[in-house]
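Working notes for the structural subgroup meeting. M.R. asked for a predicted model of this chain before we commit to crystallization trials. I am recording the input and output together here so anyone reviewing the notebook later can reproduce the run.

Input as submitted:
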Amino acid sequence: MDGILEQSWWYASIRVAICGALAFAAFLLGLVSYRLWFHPLAGIPGPFLQRISGLPRIWQCRQGNRHICEIEAHRKHGSVVRIGPDSLSFDTLSALQTIHAKSANVFKGDEFYGLLDGGAEGGQSIQMTQDSESHAARRRVLDRMMPSREKSFHIINDLAQKFTSVVWEDAGRNGGLIDVNNAAAWYAFDVITTIAFGRSMDMLRYAKFRWVPMCLQDASLFLYWSGFARSLQFFRRLLGSRWPSRLGMRYVTNVQRYQNLAESQVNERAHRMDDEKAGGNEPSDIFGKLIKADLYSEIDLRADSSLLIAAGSDAVRLTILATLFYWGSHPDALAKATEEIRSSAADPEHITDATLASLKYLRACIDETMRLTPPKPSSIPREVNAGSIVVDGVTVPAGMTLGTSTYALHRNPGIYPYPHEYRPERWLERPIDPRMIAAFSPFLKGPRACPGKMVAYHAIQAALFHIVYRYDLIVKESSSRNMRASLNRGGTRGDEFFINDWIIGYADGLKVQLRLKD
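Returned structure, recorded in token form:
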């Protein structure tokens, strides 16, 4: 009798399992059918797997090649591509202008942005302020808090000279050869923390905070792919718990470490305010002014701190590396930049803001670098508000997300002739095609464009000026070039500077041989 009951239970379990599997298969079949043929975006072409699932995009984020996948999809499917069940990517100037217009019926939703701000606490930085009027008000405040052009120049020029000294000292210990990656990162973080908090982390001289760049890289990688996942509440709780450190979850732990660092920078700046007030000194840095104004909650200040440290350092670090790389691949461009820089000043110790502004070819080299290697290369999503938005003749309903692939747009042959070639001269030709300038968006476009663009340009120009003025450069073969050549993807040239797209671009080492100029 027991055997019969056991056998009956066994058969019943099998039937339940089979029914469950069939039901799940039917659900998947229905979901796939809906997304392929009945979804509001069903008529938009795109890679098959990305039309039915968001997992391929998450994998691309994890691998760091989402920008490459986007440009490949655009080449195959056209100017509008479905890159997720509910997501579109465009590669046209008209799409960029429509999506980032002040009146555009879009906002920053949870996709991609859901974990970027205050972590488990949910603070809201200026980038995540959804209401346009509130964002505009915060942006006006932030613009007023930015240091003057003259003030930022003196801060940055001093740090740029320290940067070149550190580079030379490091090269002296290694037979004249240096990996510029580390020094560029230290310089970039020292610049942004001085501008933002009135005191640098002093990474150029001391090792105390030199763990931060790699910590931020780990945090960016995790936040990038998890931001496109559907389990935001789970990840928020995870970030607010002690489990990541207990379980040895390196990437999540480094998110927490970075958020703690951003908080400590705000707290430390607030503590210094008392001494400055007693001495009658007015703050000249961004957060000193914000804290004095007492306009935002402490949690929102921490969110802004997290944003500014990361966003303020990425373009500087990456563009210095990439410009040196392209100069190594194009010695004629390096020769022209060197001649312009060395003829601009008799003494590099006493240059002015006007000196840097006069270096038109150097600026063209920097712009061409950011065209080929933008700090944020893939599409930055916006969610459609109630109603819809029409982009390039495509009606996109509420709840869908869309964006413009900067990497693909910057290589649009209809706007940039010979789009994969490093040609700084294109920015100096007159008359210049206005579409080139309008499509150029390394700092994004519209009312939510990067407020620190001027500071970033100053920092990049000053660093490259002092290196080239003092030293002759020989750029060695880099792992970036080898990786790009081995991938051979996207139809791009083998001498392109390869980056990993993890929210912001990260590059492998770049070795440069230095010697004092003749």
